[in-house]
Design brief:
4 strands, 0% helix
């Protein structure tokens, strides 16, 4: 049973870990076409993410 606040709002549990955005990677996948076997797709993975 999830925890709820006094007004009945469901409360999520606290995170069990944390990570800096600079230590995480990012992935993007884009596809065009109505079929998984026909069409085109592109993917990009960036690691690490470095702020400006």
């Amino acid at each position: 049973m999830p925890h709820t606040s006094p007004d009945g709002t469901v409360m999520a549990p606290a995170p069990t870990h944390e990570a800096s955005i600079a230590e995480m990677g990012a992935a993007c996948v884009a596809s065009a076409g109505a079929s998984p076997f026909a069409g085109t797709a592109a993917s990009m993975i960036v690691y690490p993410i470095v702020p400006d």
